[in-house]
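Ticket #4471: structure output looks truncated?

Reporter: J.K.
Steps to reproduce: submitted the chain below (692 residues) through the standard prediction queue, then opened the result file.
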Amino acid sequence: MAERKARSERGWRVASLLGFICCAAFAAAALTLDLAGFVQGADPAVAQGWTGALPGLALGIPGALLMWRRPGHPIAIVLLASGVLWAVDGFAPAWVNASTSFAPGLPGTAFAFWMFERFGAWLLVGVPLLLVLFPDGRLPEGRWRVVSLVSVGAIALLPLALLVAPTAELIDASDPLDPRLTPFADAPFELSLPSNAWTVIIPATRLAVPIGFIGAIAVVVHRRRLTDPVGRAQLRWLLWGASAAALGLMSWFALPEVIANLLSALGFAAFSASILVAITRYRLYEIDELIGWTLISAFLAVSFFVIDGMLLGLLGVSGPAGPVAAVSALTVGAIYLPLRERLRRAVRRLVSGRREEPFEVLIDLTDRLEHAGNVEEQLAAVADAAREAFLSPRAVLALHRPSGDPLTVDCGDGVSPIATRHPVSYRGRQLATLGMAAPRRPRLSRNDRRLLEALTSHAISAIRLGEAHDELNAARTRLVASREDERLRMRRELHDGIGPLLAGVVLRLDAVSAKLPAVASEGASTEVAALVSRAADDASHAVDEVRRVAHGLRPAVLTELGLLGAVEQQCARLSSGAIEIDTNLDLPERLPAAIEVAGYRIVSEAVTNIVRHSGARRATVAIAVVDEELCIVVDDDGVGIVQPGNGQGLASQRIRAEELGGEWRIGASPLGGLRIAAEIPIGGAVRGGDEP
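Returned output as attached by the reporter:
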């Protein structure tokens, strides 16, 4: 089996060598005859041979190389055969020109003319055949195989018709045949059909050519939808080569014939070279710059043709072509030069995404992170920024956590398979993993990797830091809430347990002191009464101290009246003839202990500051629960803050709000003085039990 395979490969390599020799020989012969005619000053009867010889070499050399590298590959066979056919088609007109001008009577002139005029139409079939076979040399499966066969068959109709059509039906009245060619015009075989049949067949077969090309292009588009990243890179090479060939053919409409033929040959060279690179996968991913350059060139060429056509339409068909072309070129240049940077940027974004603009990508990510809310939205902003920068249809970002499952966000179409995974590390620690579907340019360069690292590492580090900050705030809120609940518990125990016990001791000591005179001598009773009295005084002092400690743990008025009653009582107590304090309170009967203490302290300190320092005549206190937040607003019409931080208790108010995860602000009041505002989330605090 291995020996048979080796023999087959040797046979194909011999065929590649023979094909190259044949292509080179016919091309060299065509160029030699053209040179001889030029030296003789001969007037060519048909196109010169080099117009086919150069495209033949451009197709044949890559075809022979590909055949040598991939023996028996169908793409290599089509390329090499197309190159030989082009070279033969170039040699045929050179032979005809030699026979009709400087070397009359050359044998085979009629066959050469038939080859050039009729058989040469088979050159059209090579390109669509390459398109439907690319890149693996096999036709697609299912209905797309039918589309491929129909497309190639539609293009083959014209060469078939030209082989058998009568000569009279092919001669254009507006472009009569050169009299020197009349003896060679008849074909070896002509098919006679009813009158006017060929007037329908020839236009129909010519119309089938663009239809066939459209079908072949549709097959390429279908393959791209189903292929992997390597296949998409191969198709991008094909796209570039086809674009270069199309640009070369478009030059026929605007440039002199010699230059247009040269550009066409270069276009075919680019097309065949792109196929060679794509099949062998040599430097496969280095195509994007070429595509960008080709797109810009195509834009300029199309702009030139459009403006040239408009000017010709305005001046009339008979207008001077040279000045019109010059004006068109100047107009295109005047439009392109101011817009070239924007055009290049647009092309880069179309081909490669925004990876070539790292600063703009980072600035855009910073802006997204500033407007993102929670951690999940921030992760989505990072994943979206990476996906858009590299033109990937999907990105999945998983944030690793010290405990529990990672937090994962999935951005994009949600169905494209993840092709690569990139660890996101900061200072030697892996923080996250970014997975991306294959981007438009699959391989990442060194600069691409640096951009991806800069895009993700610092952003994820900042997100982790923000998450740690949120966790710390939540822990502090829980700690403060637990502290207030513990204070509430201790106050209950002091108030309901130790306090009554000490009060009972005092009562019993008083009772003992009252009965001593009746049960003891006068001297003993006096001494015992003194001891009992001192014990009763100590117990009374202990009761007072318990009450003081209990009040310090939690204001008694909160326990008795709740936050609503306590605030109303405090505002009523501080109101006087000099200042009127209005209240607008919308509160439930009970709130978590920490929330009640913080709200009462903030209001008390704010109102006390107004009474003592503001010189206000009126103040308002509004408290309500809105969206699980305790909202406090205190306004006055006084002088405001003259010297901030001058012993007015503002810092303590801010601390009381922020330690429960809330916000505290100070600013101008609609009443003309100062406004104190605070929002304290209720959900973050632990609710205590019902108070007595």
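Triage note (M.O.): checked the attachment and the full token line is present. The chain has five domains: 1-117, 138-226, 358-478, 480-553, 562-681.
Status: closed, working as intended.
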